[in-house]
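call fold target=APC family permease
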Amino acid sequence: MATNPIEAGASLGAPPTRTGKGLRGNTVGLLAAVTLGLSSVAPAYSLAVSLGFVVMVVGDLAPAALLLGFVPILLTAFAFRELNREMPDCGTTFVWTTRAFGPLPGWLSGGWVPQIATLIAMTALSRVGATYLLDLVGLDSLATNDIAVLVTAMLILAAVTTVAYRGLQLAASVQYVLVGIQFVALLGFGIAAFARDGASAPSLSWLNPFAMGGFGPFAEAVLLCLFIYWGWDALITVNEETEDSDRIPGKAAVISTLVLLGSYLFTAFAALSFAGTGTDGLGLGNADNAADVLAALGTPVLGSALATVVQVAICVSAVSALLTCMIASPRTTLSMSSHGALPKAFTKIHPVYGTPAFGTLFYGIFATALLALLTLLSGNFLGDAILSIGLLIALYYGVTGFACVWYFRNQLRGSMRDLLLKGVLPATGGVLMLAAFARSAHDMLDPAYGVTSFHGVGGVFLLGIGSIVVGAVVMVIVRTRFRSFFRDGRTAVITSTQIEA
């Protein structure tokens, strides 16, 4: 009898098996895959900390920005779906980019960049979870103490690392509850906001992208929205453990992004209708509210008792996403290692739990060390590190879109479906992503962008572009140790994926 809810749901199909990398295959169904995609985005947290900043950039056109930000995400999701159908490997972008462009772009943009973005996000998620947890248990005085927050965040990281290591992350019922709390809270908040006296009627003009004041605000708003949607691709990293691995993960990716779009637009319309875009009081344009819009509006909209539910949702959102990050990242390094691009230690699978044992512990320790370093350097430094994630997201999503086009280039004339889903749509998504990357990198050069700067250059730019440069340097170093991969990487990946298939 299957004791794991995901296994129980998947047992109607093929029985659990061991994949070529030692993972437990046929244990994740469609609903569980969608749940992983939604949990990794941390919808309640992402919307709470981003909506205010989007409003400060484009005012009541925030829903238009959410819609526009969704377009390249959806187009990229099609690229992920088509590539996963061809190459269902837990290394995802690493394997796909290597197959399309070779080992150097594969290692840097498909491996290093998403992993660094995830590690930075994990530091933010652990801090958010710690802050809200301290506040919820009545220790609100400690929630503003950096050391207390740091210690609590480290304990949360230790807890999710233990859960991920033991394989309990596959207990779907837990993630169902965590995701359910978030969407119930967002739905309840939205309904109450629309029902409040004084709430204005929503307007379709809020969806008009042509009313934005130039390309600069447009690009900045879209980049902010990329952070709101980012994370759904974590569900693809469990593709080797998913039933019908060449079909279900891609389908789940599209479903999860559509669910996110609907929930985000509903909540944004509700918040704008209730609070407006004013720069004082409860207005969404008030910089004092931007760091956590849902917390600022929670009590006025729901009352003090029910506002606690929103706080619980944000806390749960951060911890749930953190857990999914701890699931996804070790699987990427497992794939990189199995293809000869990282030390063999990352291929170690726990004999009982079927999880990447070494990789999970490595990420738990590394994320904890990075959290401590960024916190001790400066709270502002950590904030700018989080802002820099948008650059990294745009880069590896954009490259993945082009990898899809290039890999399938000889099939594009086969049918209209192939032309659209393997060519036109992924290429358009890639262009939009890299355009947002280039424009935002230019804007981030300004020392006034973010909080920190160094010799007249914005700290967000230095952190974003700097992490890519550091990755290139690291790649040069590791290239000397893993000569076989960097010499024959594309061939090695092809051979490995064919053997596993």
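return ok
The chain has one domain: 30-384+396-434. The longest strand covers residues 17-18.
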